[in-house]
Amino acid sequence: MKRTGLVELAKIAGVSVSTVSRALSGSSRVSAATKARIRALATEHGFRLNQTASALRRQRTGAIGVVIPLGHDVDQTLSDPFFMALLGPLADALAEAGYDLLLSRVIPRGDGWLDDIVAAGRVDGVIIIGQSNQTETIEEVAGRFAPLVVWGARRPGMTQITVGTDNHTGGQLAARHLIAIGRRRLAFLGDPGVPEFADRQAGFHAVIAQTPGIEETVLPLHLTDRDAFTETARFLDANLPPDGIFAASDVIAMGAMRAITGRGLRVPQDVSVIGFDDIGIAAHTAPPLTTIRQDLERGARQLVELLLRRIAGESAGPVIMPPELVLRASA
Known about the structure:
By secondary structure, the protein is an alpha/beta fold. Helix 2 (17-24) packs across helix 3 and helix 5 (81-96) crosses helix 12 (296-311). Strands 2-1-3-4-5-11 form a six-stranded parallel beta sheet, sandwiched between helices. A six-stranded mixed beta sheet has the order 7-6-8-9-10-12, with helices on both faces. Helices cover 42% and strands 18% of the residues. It starts with 5 loop residues before the first helix and ends in a 5-residue tail after the last strand. The chain is elongated and about 70 Å long. The chain folds into three domains: 6-48, no CATH class; 63-164 and 296-321, Response regulator (Rossmann fold, 3-Layer(aba) Sandwich), CATH 3.40.50.2300; 167-293, Rossmann fold, CATH 3.40.50. It has twelve helices and twelve strands. The chain has helices at 6-13, 17-24, 32-44, 51-58, 81-96, 113-119, 135-142, 167-180, 195-209, 225-238, 250-262, 296-311, and strands at 63-69, 100-106, 125-129, 148-151, 161-165, 185-189, 215-219, 244-247, 272-277, 290-293, 319-321, 324-326.
């Protein structure tokens, strides 16, 4: 008999992978009737976890490590609105799967930080939020530690399993909109050394390069609102202001808007501003922020779903979500 994997069993049962995982492990979060039905289906279809998954189950800690590496910007905090917008649905999805969340903000000192987390044995799997400047370290560990998934940018040939947005297309959407409303001096605000930001800037640049008469400036800002404000203000004091800005995050966009209005310029009359993320506060800035939306709730659930597959010894591939231009008053 051909053995059925965890994902296939979930499809047969008409439930989520997490429900199958909980049922087979005897979790009290699943009703007795559902557990009995899923176990019967597992027997019928020859379901058997592979040896790696069985070993993980015997050593189950009941916790998932959620790790935020900050190699590129050590001043960024866990209270950053982007982290909060992602961590909420992530915690909910993990709780529904029967796991606790063990949160770590890491300032990498050398290459061993992720090995230390994995070797500690405190978690059954790891979710990394953002690759920062640690892509090589993450890639090396992902090659030998299967239950690891990453929120971040996808690159050809990567071992690490990623969930994220099509950032290149998001940058294109921003450039096309700014050009369509008549903006000609465009600026990208954000550090292209961060993989996701690099893709956003690349998409932005690709459209500009194909459009005659458009000027482009790249201002490699830090991620905090305070730094974005300070560095944008310094730039405006020394240069002819751009008339269109694409910020690599909503937080950067909000700092930039404060700097713009602080210099007596108006948003959007003098400078149109587009952010990226569509965090909750973006609709409540003055003026409300036009932004490129990425579906953080869906992304959080995809991270958990893929991690559960990896814990169970199943294969899993990357998820790349489409971006959406959300038009508000800032551009």
